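Hi Y.,

Following your request, here is the sequence exactly as I used it, all 76 residues.
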Amino acid sequence: MRSIPTVNNDDERLEPISGTPIDLLNMPTGCPFAPRCDAAMKICIKQNCQRMEINENHAAACWVNVKNAMEGGEEA
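Below is the corresponding structure, written out as tokens. Let me know if you'd prefer a different format.
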């Protein structure tokens, strides 16, 4: 999300996403974003997460959301 520009801030510096995009013809075993994610955990590399409803307009498939929900915190 830090690499997406906003219309409200002209002098905002965008942060590039490190790493290289995945090969869509050779999908990884776990989460396809894990190699480029700052919050990735070991489970992200091994297993995809199921879709989780965040609210009526937002859903995500991220192990960070599962971890936060189990700890009683907020979703990522």
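The chain has one domain: 22-76.

Thanks again,
Q.
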